[in-house]
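May I ask for a single protein's sequence together with how it folds?
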Amino acid sequence: MAGLEGIEQPRGQGHAAVPRWSPAVEDERALAAVELYGNPTESEVQLPSRPESAASARRLVQVVVLRQWGLSPKLTEDAVLLVSELVGNAVRHTGARAFGLRMRRRTGRIRIEVRDPSRGLPCLMPVQDLDLSGRGLFLVDKLSGPDPA
């Protein structure tokens, strides 16, 4: 799945597992991403619409959720997965040259926004068990809650 490099993937018996991404590990690249692109809690951060930008977006989310906001590693991992899927959709489906990332926190909730210039709205489509893609918005739907505002 796009954007999940470094995440442990299921393996058949007898195969070693790939090391799992750990938000608790100090990540200098995450701090470097904030230096390079800016802090998405202060203003919208512009990232180039390229597949490798998913890694930068994940690092920005990781450093904000875990270090700046001091939230749990589990919540950090969920937020990183969500931004991976949102960025993947923005890069894959819009044809835009850049997209914006913004993060906000209110009591009891966080909001991660990925904005692109496309006028088309994302659509949650049904997927079959054997489908190789199409589960991104399903994951976003399951891991996120409704925004009351």
Q: What stands out?
A: Strands lie at 45-48, 98-106, 109-115. The two ends are 31 Å apart (CA to CA). Helices lie at 28-37, 53-68, 73-94, 136-143.
